[in-house]
Amino acid sequence: MKNEYRYRHQPVMLAEVLQYLNLKKGSTIVDCTLGGAGHAAKIAEKIIPGGWLVGLDADNAAINAARNVLAPFGQHIQISLVQSGFDKLDDVLMELGTGLVDGFLYDLGISSYHAETPERGFSYNQDGPLDMRFDTRQELTAEMVVNKYSEDELARIIKQYGEEKFARRIAKFIVERRKIKPIKTTKELVEIIKDAIPASERRKGHHPAKKTFQALRIEVNKELERIEKSLDQAIRWLKPGGRIVVISYQSLEDRLVKSKFQDWSKSCICPPKSPVCVCGRKPIAKLITKKPLKPKKEEVELNPRSRSATLRAIERV
Q1: What are the start-end ranges of the H helices in the chain?
Q2: For the chain, what is the total number of helices (H) and then of strands (E)?
Q3: 108 — phi, psi (to 5°)?
Q4: pTM for the model
Q5: Smaller CB count within 10 Å for the chain: N or C?
Q6: Predicted pLDDT of residue 2
Q7: pLDDT for residue 26 is more than 60
Q8: What are the beta bridge partners of residue 93?
Q9: Contact (CB, 8 A) for 16 and 40
Q10: Tell me, which fold does domain 126-221 have in CATH?
Q11: C-alpha pair distances (Å), 31 with each of 53, 140, 201, 250, 297
């Protein structure tokens, strides 16, 4: 019960999500990142009567919390909640038999629940086991990455996924420390990272462990690969006129989404000097948000977590 309560957080950019999904009565909507059903509950209100809400989340705690929140809507719409990563869209929608879908929502990144639950191992501000799995059924954990990956692999991950300029130095310190004993907790890892980063840099801006923890989380959950795979599946299931709305919170996610959306909206890809089009390419979608949307000042003041949010939307043609 405690975890279910903590899973109910303020949905980010809710008004924009509802607007850009273009919801109608009877729509079939897939919330690919269900969480505590903050967005899903409001979506359910908009597709009554006769709609179908499908909710996916890799975390069973989210499914249990959302089930309670969405129970009152069960008399008016069909609700299907599935513990699954969103990269398994094809399997989930085929098994459910939804047919084509009117809209997909992705609210990417880490939830407030994960950040505030020490035993899940996502937080660099609280001590807990080095876990970081969204789906606790999977084998790979942050502890395994930290203690088993080579120094080169660690440096690459921290640099690529964390965009951390001290990636090589952090990786070296991790490898040296684990020779003494395995690194088991978030507190131990934070201290190693602090030791690796020069004191002058530690006093600047964000927490010194923020980028490394982000990198480990992305690696453990294979987040970027799964986002790309899921989006490619979602566009195939989308009805003409249907929409995909994505909220991202860091530059790697947003660049991936931006690139995918731009690719889908391109027509001719012939060389610029070609006198006539020979590729015959037609766009499969059109951009609804020409520029990414950011949360309003009032929302950021009420919900600081929304500060880094970026929303993009696209429509199937």
Answers
A1: 2-6, 14-21, 38-46, 60-70, 89-96, 112-116, 142-148, 151-162, 167-180, 186-196, 199-202, 210-221, 223-237, 251-264, 297-302
A2: 15, 7
A3: -80, 175
A4: 0.91
A5: N
A6: 43
A7: yes
A8: none
A9: no
A10: DNA polymerase; domain 1 (1.10.150)
A11: 7, 25, 40, 20, 26
